[in-house]
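Hi R.,

Here are the chain sequences for the assembly we discussed:
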Amino acid sequence: MEDPMSIGEQTRALLGFVADLFNSDPALQEELKGRHGWINLAVGLKTADDMIQTAIVFQDGHVRVLDGIPEETECTIIYHRPEDLMELLNSGPEESFMMIMKGRIILEGNPMALGLWDYLLSLVAGDEQQAAVKKQIEEHQAARQELAGSANTAGRQERLCRRENRLIGIKDEPGVKFLADPYLSRYGLADFPRLVKLRAERLAAQCEFTSEYGKLITDFHMENGYEVDRNGKPWDPLLRKAKSVQYLLENRKPLIRTDDLIGGTWSINPVLGCIARPYAEASYMWGELNTCSRREYAPYQITRESVELFHKYIFPYWRNRSIHAFWKKEYENALGPRIFERFFAIMYWATVSQSENNPGFEKILTLGTKGLIGKIDQELAKDTAADPEKRSTLEGMRLCLQGMEAYARRLSLLAKELADAEADPVRRQELIGIYERIAKVPENPAETLDEAVQSMVIAMLCLGWETMDASISLGRLDQVLQPYFEADLSKLADQPARDAYIKHVLELIGCLYLHVSSREIAAMDMAQLQNSGSAPNTCITFGGVKPDGTDAVNDMTYILLKVTELLALNHPNTHARYKPGVNSMTYLRRVAEVNYITGATPAVHNDDAMINALAAHPGWALEDIRDYASTGCVEPSIPGKHAGTTSALEINLVAPLEMAMHNGRHPVSNWSLGPETGRVEDGVFVTFDAFFDAFRKQCVFLFEQAVVGNNQLGGIFHRHHPHLLLSTLTDSCIETGREFLWGGARYNSSGVAMIGLADVVDSLLVIKKLVFDEAAVTFADLKRAVDANFVENGKLLAMIRTKISRFGSGEPESLAMAKRVMKLVSDFFAGSRDYKGGMYTTGWWSMAHHVTYGRVTSALPSGRLAGEPFTPGLTPHPAASASLLDNLRDVARLDHTSMDNNIAFNVKLVPGSEDTHETVVKNIADYMKTYFELGGMQLQFNVVDSDTLRDAMANPEYYTDLMVRVSGYLVYFTRIHYELQLELVRRAEYGL
Amino acid sequence: MAAYPLIVEIKGNSLDDGPGIRSVIFFKGCPLSCSWCHNPECQSARRELMFDPEKCIGCGSCIERCPRQALSRENVFFVDREACELCFSCCAVCPAAALAPVGRRMEPGEIAARVLKDKPFFDNSGGGVTLSGGEPTMQMAFMVELLEALKEKGVHTLIETCGLFELAEFRRLALPLIDIIYMDLKLIDSGLHKRFCGADNAVILENMVRLHELSRSGKFSIIPRLPLVPGITATAANLAAAAQFLRRHGFKESRLLPYNPLWGEKLYRIGLPNPYAKEHPMMHWLPKEVLERSTQLWKEYGL
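And here is the predicted structure of the full complex:
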């Protein structure tokens, strides 16, 4: 142990060095000059035992180091041992994240101030930090090369062949009116040079971290105030948000991407950009402004001007106005933020977003903004006794719609200018078309498919700019667009004209997909550990049944499937609904074929199971439930009627199990946060049920924290960022005069995703069977072995792995245990209320958390060793059974009502080298059909073998568009985190 | 109970043993002893002990338990097959299931219950149950009982056979319960057949022809399958002779099965030395050109 004095001196010396640099270097001095005045900051550094306390204070351009930590300190870094602090200062981003998760470093105070500290540090320690990143990259590269070894490289060629052999479909549904071959097999991507070009640009693009949004929103509030308005009067929060949205939409730069058929862009980078909201997701980016262009995963391009704008103008304004800062300020000492900031147990997505939703796009298509404003005015006129909240809400809605109109007006003018300047007559004609359409929509109802798509895109862009969510889902797009498709086609008499039109529709929808694909969410480096490679997850849903229960498959269903196949993009995230007994085998086979060709999409959902689950919600009407569409990863929501915030909370279910085994303490993060439910070593658990009850208590403790924190955040959102534009497209916000986040929607709920089900169930089975049923080992001995990561306990580990049936094995007892755990969880959430007055729904998908949580979890009774990933979503462990059918049957038999936020069930399929295209497609379809008929809720495929994945890790240049599903979401395999790649390689694979 | 034969494995979710999704039941015991047998553990109808070194964690529990001191790390095969009396007490103490009996006696009802769990998958895919081995017809009475249990539930049945069985009995008892027969056609030359497969092929060829004639009733089908074993069956002479045989008897459908060398590891597990060195062609996958050449020849004969 080092002398504490010398540690204190080391810390002070280090800070003194930083201070000297800032005091003496004019370039660094410049960095302290913000547009609003000096950028000041006080950061404390201390040991957990308070023995050492130091601070560095930046004040009006002077920097000094203090003994002790002054009152005004905004953030403090707490470390256990001196080497932790030194390691933190020298480590790459991933290592420092791991240090936080493991409780070696605790960060307290305003997270944006910490970001500022990181930014300032990056100015003086940039080279060292970059060296750490470089080392991290090199280590991963070397590991990839080694892993690839002599992997079979046949996958490089085989992937391309899949696209060339296409099946022909037969017209099999009453809803399919115009497509003679619904599979549209005659078309390949090469038939659409425009899409080839736009897609290639997108795949080659590096996302731009743009500052336009941040600048405009800051301009608005600099001018109009935040807490009080220009006249010093406290702002009405509803109108404050509405006016800021209107300002953003009026002033953002209208753009039309070269060769695009649809006007408007998400950001100033038409190919790929994120808009970076400084109070939400981008509030975590201050510290990374200088480094994000060189990070290992998903590096951003960012201009020097943007860095300066963010550092000197935007972030200083929002420093105490981020959602996260409000949360900590308004709920001082609450447990929620502390759990959130240590990352090992609960991800509160409401810190940055109210997650994904399906707006009612039909409203904008059929009424236009004009019609919607008419409805609002009517309601205001009708309800003369409306309370002030209703008045503000409705007035705010109108302002937002007017903002949308203003954006469209400027966009149409731009189209006109571009058309006038265009030399190429063909492109000129296209631009005139865009001009004419935007001159009409979204203000007026759409009458053609081109108008409908243009109207939707403008609405989607504006909604995204309002809701801080880049993942507005497009609902049941086949149902929404079919009427326009039919109307257009019925005007064309001859077949050549119809064929040309259908080809045009494929191209148009392709452009729509690329619009969706041009958006990213600004994500800090460590988001790579939670959702590596994830796009914002705009979902498109097709198929299934109509609200009256009849077959919904139509021409547009097959058009969407074709575009999904042609473009093979990871965004939009596509979802096929399937209703056993109603939807045809022709349709299901096509869904199977597109999965085979793209390798990973669409995910497939069983209407019977999903409708069953949602029908258990009191007061939800069957015809609305039948209209469900996916959003986010896989979650159901009712388009235009439902405030679902479906991925509000992602919770580590293994944490309460570990806490139950450690009397309330979480071992790796070294934090005794849960109730004391008894020490295993003391023999307090005399029956399995007694232990299960301890597990239940830890669950309830953690889940309560999740709900309380989410409800706090929901209130903050409502008060600072109400979703008024979204409210105009959601029943019954206009009538009730309550916005989307405050109970205005017809249906309300918040969604939870649980991570690590199979690991928990398998562990409980081991405890039950070996300790209590068979008395083969004492609980204390089992715990000792687990605590020691089974070192010296090889026999016990082998016994666990070979003799205990897991979830997914087909054994009734294992299935019963899974149901018992799921019921415990879903009963709690169904009985909880959210801030909108809705219930909580329970889902079983995991983003990439199953890898990251796994890294901070010790060994488990299931035989999973310390640090290994959990199984993804609700997928059984690979060793559960050699037969995929056992997995499928077990998952199909789970209770639908305990998974009303859906599941992610991953199946990795490998076509045999002898199999024909037709055989592979038939096999996939047969699996799906049977699994769904047995009651399975959801299924998602990765049709790729481990050899191909290993080859892709080492030779990414051959696999730039290789897609895989992680747990719900879609990624390009070569761009995701190394550990996540490994997890995908190790998943069980089943031959076709 | 002892009357029931040994079942080595019930493999669910097979896509390579007949149409659709199938469960495959592997019988233990075969009248032939083909030198390339892919399931050597299924050859003998007797009980055997299997040792899998990859599963072994080296805990030594089995060595302590063995009453005959038949287990030793000094022995490359670990199990002294002479000394072992097949009491299987080592299997009971092995925590890793590295030591295990080959197969288990199972009643037809138990087997049927196991495979019927997957019936919805059979039905939707046009699949069913495949009897394989080993040679299922060696256990004729048992096989018939099992087929009856399956047919009672409307399961599609397929049998993979070497073709060496007593036809009259087969025809009377089993054939009405079988939808497809996959019958091996290995070597046409009877001398070579005797040499490489341990028995004459006259009965096999006769059975194949007779069953093919009977299949014209449309109640079942028979598909001859020729395993392409390098240097043994995949010779120009044998392939030509086999093709002529099939042509002569009017077979329309037949299959060529590419050779794989995976059985080499299985030999060790039941205590048999591998006769082939690592470099030997028998220890490698069938070369692509041999498969292509054979397929070409098959085509030339219109098969």
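The beta strands of chain B are 6-14, 22-27, 49-51, 99-101, 104-105, 128-132, 157-161, 180-184, 221-228, 255-258. Chain B has a mean pLDDT of 95.

Let me know if anything looks off.

Best,
T.
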